[in-house]
Design brief:
It contains 21 helices and 18 strands. The protein has helices at about 35-45, 100-105, 140-150, 155-160, 170, 195-200, 220-235, 235-245, 250-255, 275-280, 305-315, 320-335, 340-355, 370-380, 385-390, 395-400, 425-430, 455-470, 485-495, 500-520, 540-550; strands at about 5-10, 15-20, 60-65, 75-80, 90-95, 110-115, 120-125, 130-135, 165, 180, 185, 200-210, 260, 265, 285, 295, 410, 415. The protein is globular, with a radius of gyration of 22 Å.
């Protein structure tokens, strides 16, 4: 069948065995591919009660049928495992070029099992797949890891084309706040996955492919892509998102009180205007086949933090110096730390110090809200992440340690950096997510009428799941409706889908994820807002949402 490569790699790190397995797309149309197929395989092969850091846990990477075909923003590769932070099933999406490269290597996905005896890199170059020793990369940050590995190639052109997904020291130390980095870009929502990579002694996955992706009707596909590109160019919302990225609602969030500071004790008073932030953006970067180019970077190509990371590392800590925030963010990327968890952890240390809940000698470093000199020392400490997280391994554990669990602002042990109590839509979306998340594309729905919020949240979640199954970045949904992708799906796969049938696929995936979490002991009772951040009428909206999902 067209679009799919028709093969999956199964890699057992402990036994050093690599298998190719046939993928039959027609047997998996209920999940399509990408996030859906990864979830289906994971929930079939892994027991819900598995310890995330045990060798029985698996990591499943999966592209969608549109990944690498040239379809607008079809660059994604989903990663599904059980998170070391939330203890839930978690799904992250690798952007940039990794997914397209994996498809070009001739594989729809990879299933990683077991634990390597020593640190390794999984290297894939078309059909040549190797498990290589990575002892020379132990302790190296993500930037150095990528550079050193690419230096092993004699041909500089080959080195440039290799895409590397890796962990830093935080992942090696199996910290629950460890995340993944792909070619210098943080893998969104990969917090807790970095620790799983570390538990398997998997330092990196490197991919290069040279094969074509076959489609059903190339001429029809070119026409469908051209039509969609024109729609993107003419769409005001997408143009705004292209211009501002995740900051497209910065001023609106500020006016609505959604942006907090000083670990949620004060609303954010604008000290870093959007015009100042924009001066830091010297380059716009796009993922494979993306007409939007929402990623922001400096003149060297170093990525700028997205809004939630900016708030966590800056205002939540009382820091308003943009250069300091960027340095902290870069330190997080280099060391494979999730910036939201890192920022909220530092801000929590500051609040704990202010409330004198611990003796100063117990703190890993001197901290105080707004103290820029102390903050600079904290940035240095990020290079030894086990030192910063010596008191507790994550923010939720930190508040448990001092006996102030009500102070923790998060859902299912995942910290949040926005005050979602000021937006019923964001609150319901985050609480009902199977792994707590807020993608920037959902920011634009905060003005939905309250009676419509449960249905809209479900619809946006279902559409996001469908697009991630197809391999398309859900950010494109800001300006393109789901029906705009139907001609491209048909041109690639030869399958004529209806919008309502695709929505059923999305709903099915979300129910699969929820069922796994429920069996793991994380059911509806975990869908709670932080105790000090309740939203008016929230419980009624939650009940309406459950009725729409058929969850009890």
């Amino acid at each position: 069948m067209f679009g799919w490569a028709g093969k999956i790699l199964r890699v057992n790190l402990g036994k050093e065995r690599i298998f190719e397995e046939e993928l039959k797309p027609e047997a998996n149309l209920d999940v399509l591919g990408g996030r859906g197929l990864a979830v289906k395989l994971f929930t079939t092969e892994v027991k819900p009660e598995v310890d995330p850091l045990s060798s029985e846990n698996k990591i499943i990477l999966m592209t969608g049928p549109l990944t690498g075909t040239g379809v607008n923003s079809a660059s994604l590769c989903a990663i599904v495992t059980k998170s070391a932070l939330t203890q839930t099933l978690v799904g992250a999406e690798v952007k940039l070029y990794f997914g397209a490269e994996l498809k070009a290597a001739g594989y729809d996905g990879i299933i990683i099992e077991g634990k390597a005896k020593e640190p390794v890199i999984l290297e894939i170059q078309d059909e040549r797949v190797n498990i290589l020793p990575a002892d020379y990369l132990v302790g190296q940050d993500t930037k150095t890891t990528i550079t050193l590995f690419k230096n092993t190639f004699n041909d500089p052109w080959v080195a440039r084309e290799v895409r590397v997904l890796c962990i830093g020291p935080a992942g090696e130390k199996q910290l629950p706040v460890a995340a993944l980095v792909a070619d210098g870009l943080l893998v969104s929502e990969s917090v807790g996955i970095g620790a799983v990579f570390g538990s398997k002694n998997l330092k990196a996955i490197a991919v290069r492919g040279t094969k074509d992706v076959l489609v059903n009707n190339g001429q029809r596909l070119i026409g469908a892509i051209s039509t969609a590109v024109k729609e993107c160019i003419n769409n005001k919302a997408l143009n705004t998102f292209s211009l501002f990225g995740s900051y497209h609602t910065y001023e609106e969030f500020l006016n609505k009180g959604i942006l907090p500071s000083f670990y949620f004790t004060r609303p954010y008073v604008l000290s870093v205007p959007l015009s100042q932030i924009q001066t830091t953006w010297k380059r716009k970067r796009a993922c494979f086949s993306c007409p939007v180019a929402c990623l922001k970077a400096d003149q060297n190509g170093t990525f700028f933090p997205e809004l939630e990371a900016f708030i966590a590392l800056g205002p939540l800590c009382g820091i308003d110096e943009l250069s300091l925030i960027c340095k902290a963010y870069q330190a997080c990327l280099n060391n494979g730390l999730d910036p939201v968890e890192t920022g909220t952890f530092i801000a929590s240390l500051m609040k704990i110090s202010e409330k004198k809940l611990l003796e100063e000698k117990e703190l890993p470093i001197k901290v105080q809200f707004g103290d820029k000199e102390a903050y600079r020392n904290l940035i240095s400490l990020l290079n030894q992440p086990e030192g910063l997280f010596s008191l507790a391994k994550d923010t939720a554990s930190l508040w448990e340690k001092v006996g102030e669990t009500e102070e923790f602002v998060g859902i299912k042990r995942r910290s949040i950096s926005l005050d979602i109590s000021h937006s019923s839509f964001l609150a319901l979306y985050a609480v009902t997510s199977n792994w707590p998340t807020l993608h920037p594309h959902v920011y634009g729905f905060i003005n939905i009428h309250k009676e419509d919020i449960p249905k809209k949240v479900k619809t946006v979640q279902d559409i996001s799941a469908v697009l991630e199954c197809l391999g398309v970045c859900p950010y494109l949904y800001i300006g393109l409706p789901l029906k705009a992708f139907l001609p491209m799906v048909a041109a690639v796969t030869g399958l004529e889908w209806k919008e309502e049938n695709l929505l059923k696929v999305g709903s099915h995936i979300i129910s699969l994820e929820y069922g796994f979490n429920q069996k793991a002991g994380i059911g509806l009772e975990a869908n709670r807002l932080p105790k000090k951040h309740q939203a008016i009428g929230f419980e009624n909206m939650l009940k309406s949402y459950y009725q729409l999902r058929g969850w009890q």
